[in-house]
């Protein structure tokens, strides 16, 4: 089954100062836009968070406060907000754990910086939810947590390169989605139907899902 698009689908991923979607900040983001004709365009942006990067985030991403808040890292999100919103105009969204983490983080950041962005009318495809649905017997003690690296290994037969680089994670998520659709022909190949499946199977425990999904 191939993914058929009626309008652009943007795979998104953020590296952040921590996992609190209300208090933490974005320090690097990537948007990979897939068009209905199969072509792609990419926008990668580093942003100065204005706050310290947590030790936990640094351990995962390798990004320190002195990096993210330094002169040569990137501008505050507010200064590039319109460019980012324009890139997302008319697009649905996809990601790995984005319903629990990335989209709430993005919406909170837009509100914080008065960036005009709305989720109204946007469909969401969360690849981690599809991973959960299709691998109900996954043993996290034997196979590891259901994170992106595990999904790439399981569905694409390779290791995730440059993990926790926002662009690399976006591209890997797109590969996993296409591999899942190829492996399971019972899944619909259109965004509205996948959106309904993800909404129906969304986990009520966002905190637990965020921790594991970002590991």
Folded structure, characterized:
By secondary structure, the protein is an alpha/beta fold. The protein has one domain: Ribonuclease H-like superfamily/Ribonuclease H (Nucleotidyltransferase, domain 5), CATH 3.30.420.10. It is built from 10 helices and 5 strands. It has a 5-stranded mixed β-sheet with strand order 3-2-1-4-5, with helices on both faces. Helix 7 crosses helix 8. The longest helix has 18 residues, at 166-183.
Number of strands: 5
- What is the name of the CATH superfamily? Ribonuclease H-like superfamily/Ribonuclease H
What is the gyration radius calculated from CA atoms?
A: 16 Å
Distance between the termini: 29 Å
Q: Judging from the principal axes of the Cα atoms, what is the shape?
A: globular
The number of distinct helices, counting runs of at least 4 residues, comes to 10
- Provide the residue-averaged pLDDT: 93
Biggest sheet details: 5 strands, mixed
Known CATH architecture: 2-Layer Sandwich
H-E string: EEEHHHEHEHHHHHH
Give the helix proportion (percent range). Answer: 40-55%
What is the topology, as strand order, of the major beta sheet?
3-2-1-4-5
Class of secondary structure makeup: alpha/beta
Total individual domains: 1
